[in-house]
Amino acid sequence: MAEAAENPQALNRAAITFAVMASIVMNVLDTTIVNVALPHMQGGLRANVDQVSWVLTSYMLAMVVITPLTGLLVERFGQKRLMLVGVGGFVFASAMAGQSHSIVEMVVWRFLQGALGATMVPVGQSILVSSYPPERRGVAMATLGMGIMLGPVLGPILGGYLTDDWSWRWCFYVNVPVGLLALALLVRYVPEAGKSARPRVIDWLGFTAMATGLGCLQLVLSLGDQDDWFSSQRIRLLAVMAVASLVLFVWRSLTIERPIVNLRLLKNGALALGSLGIGLFGLALYGVMVILPIFLQEHMGYEPQTSGLVMAPQGLGAMVSMWAAGRLLNRGANPRALAITGVILGAFGSSFTLSYNLGISPSWVIWPGVIRGLGLGLISIPLFTIAFSTLTKAETAEGSGLFNLMRNLGGSVGIALITTIITEYTQVAWNQMGGHINPYRPAFGVYDHALHAPPGPATWQMLGFTLGQHAAMRGILDAFVLVFWGFIAMLPLVLLMRRPAIQHAELPVVES
Known about the structure:
Helix content: over 70%
Number of helices: 20
Number of domains: 3
Strand content: under 5%
CATH superfamily of the largest domain: MFS general substrate transporter like domains
Largest sheet: none
Radius of gyration: 24 Å
Number of strands: 0
Shape: globular
């Protein structure tokens, strides 16, 4: 009888887990699947390079602005209704983005995608936590974390396949069947929870300051590289607006009784250190996801599907280590020791990238990726456990919003720094190496003779191409240095954290 009574609960948990995983994977997938389709979208939407970049910028902009509002939205609408609106709206916006025929139309639907999907991760985490008994929440979070890692793994592969064999529009249409299935399961199995009888009054001044500050900051990070940063009047204006608005937002949040985002939670040392750590985690993860496609496709000659397959082992390594971390935490392992091990593995795997060149074999990408992925998985779940170990259940949704905001901002900062480093240091390397190429240097004569290349325009064109490839490689190596030091910078933060007294805290889930 007891077993029969448990079966319905187990079935409900499985359905809820699948629905939440499908929703979040769909959301995460859209941050990477579109990247490989941008050149095709540029032609289909009759847009230039700067215009088509807004397909990515608008999505991230909406995510950054809406994510901190998770706690307030849960108070007013409840977890189930907010999740249903998010998933349903995301599916509708995906379908409309797929049928877009202008860049303006596409940007509008992408912004709505980001806004509606921004709360999926923290709300989905809260739903999952409340569905499992305390002794099984570590495994539940690890299972969800493994599902989330499918986003970076499947994104380049699925995006390349759909774009090459079907159309870039299917990068959006693929969300429709997955989202509808998740929506049906959410309606059927997820209980109502989280709605407050006395939700806080919306602080419109605080909301305006937060939205303006985070929005302008995201625009600075997204557009800075193409506008040459602070040499652009537009970037300078956005930066001033970001600083002024964020200062007003912080002041407002700390001086009124019920602010729109409770920044007082950051007085909790575990959450503050964990949020900084997850920001560096986002920098390292998204930094790698930006550098490797550029390196493999533009300089190693890999097709999008091939580069996705070569990058996939990193995600598989992370999935394995997340599962192991969840099991070990449930058996009483020290999360701080697991996180330190993860940092060491991540730095060790990234150290191989500092020796990359244009002649490496795929194994030089695959095996360091596996090691780095193992490190990422061992960092994430234990870091979440420590950061949320001292928060009450009522603080979890809002803390999760802040936590995921830092992950988003860390990823945005990482992408901005990576693209800037590659651009700037490629040009520096071009100037340095190009200065040594002239017909009056004896070494140049030896090189030219070894090539059996007759003097003329064709020879100089070939030399220019070779110089460009090696200059770009120098820029990419400098970008890999940033990722390596991103892992190293996590170590003091983890060492400052204390082992939590509660092993089954309300854990957040982070996108990857």
